[in-house]
Amino acid sequence: MLICIALASLFWYIVALGDEYEQDFHVKLSLRNVPENVVVTTDLPSEVTVTLKDKGSRLLSYKYGGGLPTLNIDFRNYSQGSGHVTLHSSDLSKLLLPKLLPSTRISAFKPEAVDYYYNYGLHTRLPIRLRANLQPEKFYSVGGVRLTPDSVTVYATQEVLDTMTAVYTDRLEISGISERTVRRVGFVPVKGAKFEPANVLVRVDIDQITEKTVKVPVRWVNFPASMVLRTFPSSVDVTFQVGMSLYKQITSEDFVIVVNYDDVLQSAGGKLHLKLKSIPAGVTHVRISPEDIDYLIENVED
User: Distance (Å, rounded) from C-alpha 275 to C-alpha 295?
Assistant: First the structure.
């Protein structure tokens, strides 16, 4: 019984191999004979998909006989000085058909057209702009970000170069950082442009956050010449968070608390509400203590 089933299956398999089918195959592409003075700024895709139609037995010979041969695109046959070459399915068919069995037909290519861009060395140097979301761990902060290099050479046509002012990185997402971190990041592709180098080294320096308090004097401005402002206290505590690398650099002189004469006129309850006029870079979570102070205006005799 089993022998009969096996023979029947073999019979139907042999019959099936004689029927026509369609099957997809991958075909590799290679651009050849590119002159030394030419820079290919956007490459051909590495491969395309072709749908072949033939008897099942012949399609199997392609599948298990090493696959389809690589299509070598000769640069000299297509370059017209425009900087952009498009190869349609008809162009690819002309290259592939001579490499197939006479009975095999090409039904379709996916995609239906492929292209590449090139120029004769036209280039410019542009700065790199980092696109990143850097989230340090609690009690840490980003102390600095360094890009190596900080600019890249861009090869493209003049029309493309005229539209570019910078090269942007792929988005870098890092969370929970508590120590120096280094990543290599690529660039957002631009059709018709080639970047050298093709990526950038991003170094993220991390600071441990600490708290510091300094005494800042209360200053006053725009008062009539006959008036003097006395505040109680004359100096207040300014407490803030800062990275360890900046701890010694940030002093009371980096903060300014100023009371304007208009502030006194608008004050209520005999107290002044203090605000910082300037906060140095790298400082966060700033608090003034006390925020509301007593004051006295004295008249100065001539």
Answer: 15
What is the Cα–Cα distance from 183 to 205, expressed in whole angstroms?
A: 12
- Cis check: omega of the bond before 111, within 30 degrees of 0: yes
Please state, in angstroms and as integers, the Cα–Cα distance from residue 100 to each residue in 97, 114, 129, following that order: 5, 21, 49
- Per CATH, the homologous superfamily of domain 123-207 is YbbR-like domain (2.170.120.40)
User: Is there a shared CATH topology between the 18-118 domain and the 209-299 domain?
Assistant: yes
Per the model's pLDDT, the better-predicted residue between 103 and 81 turns out to be 103
Q: What pLDDT score was predicted for residue 302?
A: 57
pTM for this one? 0.70
Q: Which pLDDT tens digit goes with each residue over 169-212?
A: 999 999 999 999 999 999 999 999 999 999 999 999 999 999 99
- Residue 161 in contact with residue 190, Cβ under 8 Å? no
Protein fold of 209-299: RNA Polymerase Alpha Subunit; Chain A, domain 2 (2.170.120)
R_g (Cα) of the chain, nearest Å: 36
Q: Which two tokens stand for residue 218?
A: 């209360």
Q: Class of the 18-118 domain?
A: mainly beta
Q: Where are the domains of the chain?
A: 18-118, 123-207, 209-299
Query: How many residues are given for the chain?
Result: 302
Check: CB of residue 80 under 8 Å from CB of residue 139.
Answer: no
